[in-house]
Design brief:
Blueprint (H helix, E strand, L loop, with lengths): L1 H14 L7 H16 L2 H7 L2 H4 L4 H11 L7 E8 L7 E8 L3 E12 L4 E13 L2 H4 L9 H26 L6 H8 L1 E9 L5 E10 L2 E4 L8 E6 L1 H12 L3 H6 L1
Length: about 250
């Protein structure tokens, strides 16, 4: 059973892979971080958006960020996520900078400016993480509690129950409005969620969805969040099928 959990988990994780960050945005964000890290304020000012360039305390703010960065060379840097609001022309790029004793997550908002469409920095935020946080957020079955395994099993069973009951309704003879009953079997109510890293979870009742189950996380280094809906529709359909008179009962009548 544990092997099946691993295989199914890998399938869902692969389905949640995000599109890569645009190379131009990736390069602009890295170049700006390098300028801040080196204290090259002329390069910093040249990369700022008009609104950021007008900030009176920008130099002191960037100097404070630079002093808070871990000492020593960067061992690894990679883009771990990005967002672009619907209809917006700016992108928020998230990069992970790994040092010997700590990690830094940098969020850089970039907006196009000028006829050439060059990207300028609209905001810049660096958050230092303790060592080991990135590794702790990786998906793994090792060392997890029964609560973790129980939630994961329930999350996988929920859509399986929905599909199985819908198939059962399709094969049941004499069931009127069969298509409607099959559709109802796929309806889930509420949304249960579980943080795979911390073990925290919750439930939102005011939500209706179809076969809602999946993994997700904000960035490639954030905790995995598992969600699924309760198969209320499938239970109603199953109750309806169990209450149907059998052919033997109909013959006896």
């Amino acid at each position: 059973m544990k092997t099946w959990f691993v295989l199914l988990s890998l399938l869902f994780v692969a389905g949640c892979a995000r599109a890569p960050l645009d190379p131009q945005a990736d390069r602009a964000a890295r170049d700006f971080y390098a300028a801040v890290h080196a204290g090259d304020w002329s390069r910093v000012d040249a990369s700022l958006s008009p609104a950021m360039a007008r900030a009176a305390n920008r130099r002191a703010a960037f100097e404070q960020v630079r002093r808070a960065l871990p000492p020593g060379p960067v061992r690894e840097v990679r883009a771990v996520g990005w967002t672009r609001p619907d209809g917006a022309d700016h992108v928020s790029a998230v990069h992970l900078y790994r040092f010997a004793d700590a990690d830094v997550v940098v969020n850089t908002a970039l907006a196009p400016s000028g006829p050439g469409g060059s990207l300028q920095v609209a905001s810049f935020l660096a958050n230092r993480l303790p060592k080991g946080v990135v590794e702790a957020n990786r998906f793994s079955l090792a060392g997890k509690s029964p609560q973790h395994y129980g939630f994961l099993a329930t999350a996988f069973l929920s859509p399986l129950v929905m599909v199985a009951v819908a198939a059962l309704a399709a094969m049941t003879r004499g069931l009127r409005f069969k298509i409607a009953w099959m559709a109802l079997a796929l309806v889930g109510v509420g949304s249960a969620w579980f943080n795979w890293t911390t073990g925290e979870g919750g439930f939102t009742a005011a939500q209706i969805s179809l076969v809602n189950m999946g993994f997700g996380r904000a960035t490639d280094i954030s905790p995995w969040i598992i969600r699924f809906s309760m198969p209320v529709g499938a239970l109603l359909v199953l109750a309806r099928l169990l209450l149907m008179p059998s052919r033997r009962d109909e013959a006896a009548a």
